[in-house]
């Protein structure tokens, strides 16, 4: 506004003040000197007005430049602060996102680990149960086999013992029968004399002893055979 007011100013004409002289005015033959002074004063006034105009114009421009520089500085500071705030906000967002991703990954890893542990434990239990079942089956099979072998051996031994006892009894009965027959046969000849009777009695005793030895041998053979059969089935 001041600049516009200065532009509208018109050059002022400064006239020197006049004061009355006590003497007589100079003769009118010197009007040229007065005209020269007027021109000088007018030029000085114009120069002063121009200087004032340029002074005020430069002052306004300088003030405008200062104000603009100040505004630019404030704007730069404001934008810098906004950039700092925005950078902090982005950094915080990035940190929060990273933290959330870390927590999510950590939770997923923990779930996968727990799942793997549970699967491993389940497989371990299954393997252990299978092994235990196989061991029980093998144990039962072994016990059953031993039981059958024992029963078979006991049965064979019982049969062999019964057979031996039966054969021994038959042999003993046969020996006794032979002894009785021999005794009866030799008794029928008792009338031949005492010498004949004595010889016959000795012969009966010899024959009876022979049958006893045969019976004992047969019994021993049956026992050995029974023992061998039992060892083969054990």
TrEMBL record:
Residues 67-110, 140-234 are annotated as: Disordered. Signal peptide: none annotated. The chain crosses the membrane at residues 38-56. This is Late embryogenesis abundant protein. Residues 184-202 have a biased composition (Low complexity). It comes from the Eukaryota. Residues 67-81, 162-183, 204-216, 224-234 have a biased composition (Basic and acidic residues). It comes from Gymnopilus junonius. Keywords: Membrane, Transmembrane, Transmembrane helix. Residues 94-104 have a biased composition (Polar residues). The keyword Membrane applies.
């Amino acid at each position: 506004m001041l600049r516009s007011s200065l532009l509208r100013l018109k050059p002022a004409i400064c006239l020197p003040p006049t004061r009355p002289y006590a003497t007589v005015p100079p003769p009118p033959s010197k009007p040229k000197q007065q005209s020269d002074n007027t021109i000088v004063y007018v030029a000085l006034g114009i120069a002063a007005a121009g200087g004032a105009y340029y002074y005020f114009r430069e002052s306004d421009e300088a003030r405008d430049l200062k104000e603009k520089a100040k505004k630019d500085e404030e704007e730069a500071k404001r934008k810098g602060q906004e950039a700092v705030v925005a950078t902090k906000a982005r950094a915080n967002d990035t940190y929060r996102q990273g933290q959330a991703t870390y927590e999510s990954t950590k939770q997923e890893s923990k779930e996968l680990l727990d799942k793997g542990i549970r699967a491993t434990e389940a497989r371990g239990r299954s393997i252990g149960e299978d092994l235990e079942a196989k061991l029980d089956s093998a144990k039962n099979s072994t016990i059953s086999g031993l039981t059958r072998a024992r029963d078979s051996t006991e049965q064979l031994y019982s049969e062999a013992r019964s057979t031996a006892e039966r054969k021994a009894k038959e042999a003993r009965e046969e020996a006794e029968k032979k002894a009785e027959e021999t005794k009866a046969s030799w008794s029928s000849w008792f009338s031949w004399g005492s010498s004949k009777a004595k010889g016959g009695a000795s012969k009966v005793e010899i024959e009876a002893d022979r049958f006893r030895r045969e019976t004992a041998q047969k019994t021993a053979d049956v026992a050995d055979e029974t023992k061998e059969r039992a060892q083969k089935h054990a």
